[in-house]
Amino acid sequence: MKLFLTIFLSICILSFHSFAQETKEYYFKFNITSRSELDVITDIISIDNVLHNEVFAYALHHELDEFQKLGYKIEFIERDVPKSLTMATTVAEMNNWDRYPTYEVYRQMMKNYESDYPAICKLDSIGTTNDGRQLYVLNISDNVGLEENEPEFFYTSTIHGDETTGYIMLLRLVDSLLSNYNTEADIKYIVDEINLFINPNANPDGTYNGGNNTVSGAIRSNGYADLNRDYPDPRIGANSPYQLETQAMMNFAEDHHFIMSANFHGGAAVMNYPWDTWYTSENLHADTEWFEQVCTDYVTTARIIYANYMNSITSDGVTHGATWYKIGGGRQDHMNFWHQCREVTIEISDSKLLA
Prior knowledge:
Layout: H1 2-13, E1 25-31, H2 38-41, E2 46-51, E3 54-60, H3 61-68, E4 75-76, E5 87-88, E6 100-101, H4 103-116, E7 121-128, E8 134-140, E9 152-157, H5 165-179, H6 185-193, E10 195-199, H7 204-207, H8 244-254, E11 258-265, E12 268-273, H9 288-302, E13 318-320, H10 321-324, H11 331-339, E14 342-349
Parallel strand pairs: 5-6, 9-10, 9-11, 11-14, 12-13
Antiparallel strand pairs: 1-3, 1-4, 2-3, 7-8, 8-10, 12-14
Helix pairs in contact: 1-5, 1-9
């Protein structure tokens, strides 16, 4: 997986826990007879996946109440939480990348990257969550902290708190870029020529919903909203009031000029490009051909290593967002529409929470 993230970069060139979260999150499935039904449903609940006519979705209590008025027969699903989750309680225990960090270990890892590689790495917190956790972003560049005539790329993961594969993969990417900067020519070129910003976890309140020492209680939302339905949307307009995490990301984007971005998810394996809010028949993105090419290049290269990678949604591993299922308030569309940033959503693993 670490190689897959580096491949994508190269292709782009060419028990502190607040109990305020009392909202229950439901996971369920139901059947539809026509995909057009999703146009109404997607504005009520948070669709997670659509396989033929079977829909998987999340809802908070008030959303579930509203959805049930539509009369669909729903089946609640028990969350697939691995029984053998191992947590790292020290930074050293993360050396083999075979466990999840506690929140405090995550914080220390991010601080260590800055202190161990001060010439090319700078740590910032772009905001604080409802539960007081930090939204960390690492800036990696050869002249870190200086304004240079270089493209700015942004990589972020786990806006859905229970989709943790990308969380660990971005930590590994950071570690790989920093530790190999002086020995690997390709990595040195990336760091020297691009101003990189990496946010391993965009929803720490969701990931550490069960407490700072475990990810076994991870939930999709931050306890109040699905953060990937919380942004201003080019189709439905403003979506305010915004969650703290959303506002922090919006402010961060305003302060920069990102030309490319990737938003890592889990629960499926596919490259997803905009628009999520419009069907191609409604509004075709001007850069559709470019998105198709970059996404296809990534999948093709990744399949040299894993031949069956990214085939759970489409055979070619690439999908237009709304063609899969339409959403409003997504981050990908916000970045593309308001910031002219070519952001894609990378569904990196069929499993959300790996053991």
